[in-house]
Amino acid sequence: MSTHDHVDEILANWERERPELDASPIGVFGRIARIDRLLDAHLAEFLGTHDLTLGLFDVLAALRRQGPPYRAKPSVLATTSLLTSGGMTGRIDQLERQGLVKRVNDPDDRRVSFAELTSAGLELIDMLFEQHLDREAALLRELTPEEQIQLGAFLRAVEATMSSDNHQ
Fold first, then answer.
1. DSSP string spanning 28-65?
2. Structure confidence at residue 4 (pLDDT)
């Protein structure tokens, strides 16, 4: 494992140029940003081989997590994905064209429809999610299970602080 990275260079440059400032948050947020970009590229390559984007994968995974019959209202899916209803409609349309999702009307209320995994969608998300977890585990191979738990807890604390700060 490397002990010096690009973020260390940035920190050293700021220390040289503005030694009176504490640039240490860059050590955390710079690495989070770089990891996010690397993970996006890693996922885009993996999902692209299945004609999916991360957004489409998220919809399939959200439906799978619902349990049988693997269905949810588009508005619920939009909320969990932080999308507008129009954005979710576009994703569902794409997945429907690919035969991975179908729209199902609510028998009790014709105004309500659901997005539901097809058997092909269920088969694909089960296979992809298993591979996805294996790939992510491989990316964390330098960390012990205990370190992974600690890192998750640290990141949860940072996210909670950021979330509470945004609502003040």
1. HHHHHHHHHHHHHHHHHHHHHTTT--HHHHHHHHHHHH
2. 87
Starting at the edge strand found earlier in the chain, the sheet holding 71-72 runs 71-72, 109-117, 101-106
Same domain assignment for residues 152 and 96: yes
Exposure on the CB side of residue 50, measured as CA atoms within 13 A: 23
- The residue out of 30, 49, 68 marking a domain boundary is 49
CB neighbours of 120 closer than 8 A, spacing ≥ 6? Answer: 99, 100
Render pLDDT for 12-51 as a digit per residue (tens, 0 to 9): 999 999 999 999 999 999 999 999 999 999 999 999 999 9
Considering the domain architecture, whether residues 27 and 86 belong to the same structural domain is answered as no
**Long-range contacts, stretch 152-161, CB < 8 angstroms, 24+ apart:** 155/32, 158/28
The pair phi, psi for residue 68, each rounded to 5°, is: -55, 140
Please indicate, yes or no, whether residues 95 and 31 belong to a single structural domain of this protein: no
R_g of the chain computed on alpha carbons: 20
Residue 60 is part of which domain span?
50-166
